[in-house]
Design brief:
Blueprint: H1 2-27, E1 30-38, E2 49-52, E3 57-60, E4 66-72, E5 76-83, E6 86-94, E7 101-107, H2 127-133, E8 134-139, H3 140-146, H4 151-155, E9 161-164, E10 172-175, E11 183-187, E12 190-191, E13 213-217, E14 232-237, E15 250-258, E16 263-274, E17 277-288, E18 292-293, E19 296-297, E20 303-316, E21 319-334, E22 346-363, E23 366-382, E24 388-405, E25 413-429, E26 436-451, E27 454-464
Parallel strand pairs: 1-7, 11-14
Antiparallel strand pairs: 1-4, 2-3, 2-5, 5-6, 8-13, 9-10, 11-12, 13-14, 15-16, 16-17, 17-20, 18-19, 20-21, 21-22, 22-23, 23-24, 24-25, 25-26, 26-27
Length: 465
């Protein structure tokens, strides 16, 4: 009996020891420490959210990327790491008995696409003001998608715009059925000097490839630009003279190809900051062959173009002062056999050199804007036998002084200005019009008045020729 009692006691002790040992093992707690790093540069990632699923605990990484979980009593579990700038990461862990874990996790950065935000020195127009002043603004990805061989073909899909053309190269935009002198074409607010408004076989001497945006202006504000262009103003914004300083060098390069005429364009553009100076350089080359149509190739519709610009500006808190030089060379063919065209076609060679000066001065909440431009334009037309049929030479000097004010008396905003233009026009070849000299002095005013739901705009321009 005694032996049986001792055996029972030993058995009870063994069972009790085994029970406590199992309970201790199951209740043993572990600690997890770790660090979150950037996979590209091994820099610590702060404020990453770490979730431990087994015990549903959360923590965030500190500035050095470290984190810690205490009192973990599970052997197998999963953690999830998330961060707004990195891809999500899942990690499965298996704890060994009586050991803690130190973990290093590398997160892969993710690309975040945001809409561009454009900040300029001028006050931002409201949506209502944009509707009043602009019938169309083409910029960003939409501009890149619609880019074509000429300015007119780039704008052809915009509401109210169409093309006047006698071949691909000499196309010109038509706005609401109005063309020629009724639509003014400008670049950075400076009138484009050429003969495109005088004849449908003359090209617009402007390259839209490196433009930031294209504006089609309408309304009374047109009178600050011209007296005759009642249809509107097409303004190409390129900022050939930089009006701001970037914090690093900007460089853009592009290639454009059209299969219909086996045409290509290559262009480079760069801005180099050297505070307080900014230098901008641009060079583009375009070449196209005869365009292919359903009934064959359109003879003599080829073109070659080379243009470039260099601009230097001085940028300070008071404003911008700068100057630029631009060259534009274009050789293109005009097909023959059409009504109003040369019977056998014609080849036109254009050379243009332009010097621009810009001064924008900030006067408290007002601006004083002075622009000067000298343009030398040469235009030769070669007949099918190689002889010069007509020749044109234009030397133009123009200047504009604008005072732009904000709130003043009953006027919310307005422009007061004066402009001057001198034009020396020479003609040669088989064109018997005499040379001409012209002067133009204009003064203009534009004002905007807002009263609750009423918005009133008016413009006035007086010219003396």
């Amino acid at each position: 009996m005694r032996i049986n009692f001792l055996n029972r006691l030993k058995l009870f002790g063994a069972i009790l020891f085994l029970f406590f040992n199992i309970t201790y093992s199951q209740n043993q707690n572990f600690e997890l420490t770790g660090k979150i790093l950037n996979a590209e540069n091994s820099e610590p990632v702060a404020n990453a959210l770490i979730q431990l699923f087994a015990i549903n605990q959360f923590t965030t990484s500190s500035n050095d990327g470290s984190f810690i979980f205490s009192n973990i009593n599970a052997k197998k579990f999963r953690i999830k790491i998330t961060h707004i700038a990195f891809q999500e990461k899942l990690v499965d862990l298996d704890f060994d008995e009586q050991t803690s874990k130190t973990l290093t996790v590398y997160l892969i950065p993710k690309i975040i696409n945001l809409s561009p935000v454009v900040i300029s020195g001028n006050s931002k127009l409201s949506i209502v003001e944009e509707i009043q002043q602009f019938s169309s603004i083409l910029s960003g990805k939409e501009l890149q998608r619609n880019l074509s061989q000429t300015l007119a073909s780039t704008l052809k899909n915009e509401a109210g715009l169409s093309i006047r053309s006698m071949g691909p190269a000499p196309s010109r935009p038509v706005f609401r059925g109005l063309g020629q002198e009724r639509v003014l074409i400008s670049e950075d607010g400076i009138k484009t000097i050429d003969l495109s408004s005088s004849s449908p076989d003359h090209a617009v001497t402007l390259e839209p490839f490196q433009s930031e945006r294209i504006e089609v202006l309408r309304g009374p504000k047109i009178l600050t630009k011209t007296l005759t262009s009642v249809g509107g103003v097409v303004n190409v914004v390129k900022n050939d003279i930089p009006n701001q300083i970037h914090n690093q060098i900007h460089f853009n390069a592009g290639v454009y190809y059209e299969s219909a005429n086996r045409g290509y364009l290559t262009g480079v553009q760069t801005e180099i900051p050297y505070n307080p100076f900014a230098l901008r350089f641009e060079l583009n080359r375009r070449k196209t062959d005869d365009i292919k149509t359903p009934i064959g190739y359109l003879k003599n519709s080829l073109s070659k173009n080379l243009n470039g610009n260099i601009g230097l500006s001085f940028v300070e808190e008071f404003g911008v002062i700068g100057s630029g030089i631009k060259i534009y060379n274009l050789n293109y063919g005009v097909p023959g056999g059409f009504v109003g065209a040369h019977p056998f076609g014609v080849n036109i060679d254009i050379e243009k050199q332009q010097i621009n000066f810009l001064s924008e001065i900030n006067l408290d909440k007002n601006n004083l804007d002075l622009r000067f431009s000298n343009v030398q334009y040469r235009h030769k037309e070669f007949e099918y036998n190689g002889l010069i049929g007509s020749e044109f030479a234009i030397n133009t000097n123009s200047a504009t002084l604008n005072f732009e004010h904000n709130k003043f008396s009953i006027f919310d905003e307005g422009i007061l200005g004066i402009s001057f233009e001198h034009r020396d026009f020479n003609i040669g070849g088989y064109v018997f019009s005499p040379p001409s000299y012209s002067y133009n002095i204009s003064t203009f005013v534009y004002e905007n008045v807002k009263a609750e739901k009423l918005n009133l705009e008016f413009g006035l321009r007086y010219s003396f020729d």
